């Protein structure tokens, strides 16, 4: 494990009540679904890319919902939301969830019988007319969690997509996608690579491509460095275009970072100028394109590599109308440097907060 993979559970906000878990999950679920629709409408992703982008977001939402069920009535452990520059769960939460589900069969054998637990619930509510204890609610939540959550759908540190052929007429033959959760900044990334293949049968080379991507494109780094690493280690692959989407920060009441957008929203929530469920979502798209080629290596180990363009950076902000007005007032420099004016998405309304 490299130093880039070392994680500590500091700089995290702890969710410690049922209400907070429900509230946080509703916010993330709502914001990501709004983002998927808006990304397509504003052509931030192509039709093909948006399909994979949605799938990765679905894995993220599935994992956060699993955390909600797991932790809601747990008196010993609490879910942690990153405070540094993310607003999403700390990476360790995903790792704990994945490892915990590896022992799923052991836990299922120790769970209380469902019928017995139901009888206890009814006896407590109908005969004794008392609320069900938190411990029994935790037992019920554990049954739901261990019998319904599947490990294969948990958002892992690296998630590989398939290699597919691109439509005829495009400048490359194939496209693949992958996603990773950066362990340093606790944010999800989605990547796309368009490339040509100079070998005979790509099916026999897919595993090698997947392995190189997993080992060389699984963290936040300079995009041209990532492109060069992929190109150098896959001599039969000619990358033409690499696109990386940095999803976040998610600016909300749980994120107490130094980001100016987050700070503006928190300040306005504190002054009761905007409701508690106010949010905004930043998104950054980086792209590099191959141009000419150059040769690297000695006489016996020459390899033709791509020369890459400067990285094209595009920043976006998605927010409800009221928040957009607020951000133009408090952070005009940031708003004026976006690739597009802030993109309006729906306002979230949560009753009985």
Summarize the structure.
With 353 residues, the protein is an alpha+beta fold. 41% of the residues lie in helices and 24% in strands.
Walk me through what this model shows.
With 353 residues, the protein is α+β, with helices and mostly antiparallel strands. It folds into two domains: 141 residues, no CATH class; 187 residues. Helices cover 41% and strands 24% of the residues. The strands form two sheets. Strands 3, 4, 5, 6, 7, 8, 9 and 10 form an eight-stranded mixed beta sheet that branches. A two-stranded antiparallel ribbon has the order 1-2. Helix 1 packs antiparallel against helix 2 and helix 2 runs antiparallel to helix 6.
Strand and helix map with partners:
Blueprint lengths: L11 E4 L2 H24 L5 H25 L7 E4 L8 H12 L1 H7 L3 H14 L6 H15 L9 E8 L8 E9 L4 E11 L8 H11 L6 H11 L3 E15 L8 H11 L9 E17 L6 E6 L3 E8 L1 H10 L1 H5 L6 E2 L9
Parallel strand pairs: 9-10
Antiparallel strand pairs: 1-2, 3-4, 4-5, 5-6, 6-7, 7-8, 7-9
Helix pairs in contact: 1-2, 2-6
Keyword list:
8-stranded mixed sheet; two-stranded antiparallel ribbon; 353 residues; disordered N terminus
Number of helices: 11
Query: Biggest sheet, in brief?
Result: 8 strands, mixed
Briefly note the structural class of the backbone. alpha+beta
Head-to-tail CA distance between termini: 43 Å
Tell the overall outline.
globular
Helix content: 40-55%
Tally the beta strands. Answer: 10
Q: What is the chain-wise order of helices and strands?
A: EHHEHHHHEEEHHEHEEEHHE
Mean pLDDT: 86
Proportion of strand residues: 15-25%
Give the total of domains: 2
**Any low-confidence stretches, pLDDT <50, length ≥5?**
1-10
> What is Rg?
23 Å
């Amino acid at each position: 494990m490299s130093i880039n993979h070392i994680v500590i559970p500091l700089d995290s906000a702890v969710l410690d009540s049922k209400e907070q878990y429900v509230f946080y999950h509703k916010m993330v679920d709502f914001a990501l679904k709004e983002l998927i629709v808006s990304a397509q409408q504003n052509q931030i992703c192509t039709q093909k890319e948006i399909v994979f982008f949605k799938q990765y977001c679905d894995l993220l939402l599935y994992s956060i919902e699993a955390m909600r069920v797991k932790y809601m009535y747990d008196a010993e452990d609490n879910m942690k939301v990153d405070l540094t520059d993310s607003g999403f769960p700390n990476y360790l939460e995903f790792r704990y969830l994945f490892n915990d589900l590896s022992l799923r069969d052991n836990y299922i054998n120790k769970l209380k019988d469902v019928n017995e637990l139901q009888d206890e619930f009814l006896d407590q509510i109908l005969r004794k007319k008392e609320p069900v204890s938190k411990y029994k609610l935790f037992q019920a939540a554990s049954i739901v969690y261990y019998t319904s959550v599947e490990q294969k759908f948990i958002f892992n540190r690296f998630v590989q997509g398939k290699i597919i052929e691109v439509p005829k007429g495009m400048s490359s033959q194939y496209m693949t996608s992958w996603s990773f959760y950066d362990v340093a900044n606790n944010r999800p990334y989605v990547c796309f690579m368009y490339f040509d293949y100079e070998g005979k049968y790509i099916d026999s080379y897919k595993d090698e491509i997947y392995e190189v991507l997993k080992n060389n494109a699984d963290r936040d780094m300079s995009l041209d460095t990532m492109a060069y690493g992929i190109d150098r280690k896959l001599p039969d692959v000619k990358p033409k275009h690499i696109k990386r989407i940095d999803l976040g920060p998610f600016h909300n009441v749980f994120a107490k970072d130094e980001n100016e957008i987050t700070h503006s929203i928190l300040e306005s929530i504190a002054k009761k100028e905007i409701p508690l469920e106010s949010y905004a979502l930043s998104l950054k798209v980086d792209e590099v394109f191959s141009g000419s080629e150059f040769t690297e290596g000695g006489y016996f180990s020459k390899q033709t590599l791509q020369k890459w363009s400067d990285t094209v950076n595009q920043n976006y902000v998605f927010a409800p109308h009221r928040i957009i007005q607020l951000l133009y007032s408090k952070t005009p420099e940031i708003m004026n440097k976006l690739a597009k004016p802030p993109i309006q998405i729906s306002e979230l309304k949560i009753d009985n907060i």
